[in-house]
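Batch 3, record 17
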Amino acid sequence: MTSKDFFHKYLWDIIVVGALTLVSGGFAIYLAIPKNSNEHIANVSKDSTVILSIDLSVESATVREVAIQGAMTPMTLGVKKNAICVLESGCRTHDCIYAGWVSDSTHPIVCAYNHVSIQVGPKSLYITV
Amino acid sequence: MKHAQVHKLALMAMLLAFAVVLGVVDYAIPFPFVPGAKLGLANIVILVALYELGIGEASLIDLGRVFIVGGITGRIGQLGFFMSLGGAAASLLMMILLKFLARKMTIIGVSACASITHGFAQVAVYCLFVQNITAFYYYPLMSLIGIATGILIGILSERIIATKVIERQKEHYGFNQPKKKTVEPMAATSLIDESDKKEDESNHQP
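Prediction for the assembled complex:
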């Protein structure tokens, strides 16, 4: 297949998929930019309710463990100065643990298995539907 | 006719088995760092079924796969099951719409769009379930991964269709065949008349 035939055959695929890639990439880059915020409040929510709010700015540099009860299994959170992470969870994929330490609103931690999400930032960032 | 239907049913059962195996393999392969991101290997079977058999058959295989894989992995009734169900239904709907409305798009583009829709529906189901839209932060990254995996799945599906493995089954057993155009009686008589005239003209020529 020549390049002319290739573009003739896949022209609409390239246009549609290319546009979707640009839009998704743009949003991904926008969300990856760290948002400066003086407030470091970690909102830990299970389902639609905030079960724990931790002011990370007053934490010490040493890691403190916080136990919470997820929808399925207990979870252990690690808390230190301006950062929070999930240390232990009973979920299968451990995506929440792989998310690592979070210190701003750029990346929330989500554990779909335990219905738990953790977001750092000012309280106004927490949106419920 | 009945014989053909039995063969079609057997073929559908085989495709469903393939989809279930690929679904279980997909479930077993973790995709770290992006929650919910999967390769979507079972979509190969769904795409092939949609392009080779039809909407009803592809829908049956897709929904059957979701329920059987949910039963095997013990997730029926859990949030993960509803996320899979929502994703499968939304991506199938997108495949059907694009196949019949966007005729200029090939199976690769359809697969990429269905993959993005699958991710969107999964995140939407999660957000509705937990009443919290935090998980949408992952969606742009998930959709980028979805485009890449969707293109890969589309290429594989195109290659499988190109082998004509199902086409040959259809021809051999006589199911899902396109309806043959019947020659209308008027047209047939006019053709005969024209050929007769030509014969007459040639006979009259000195």
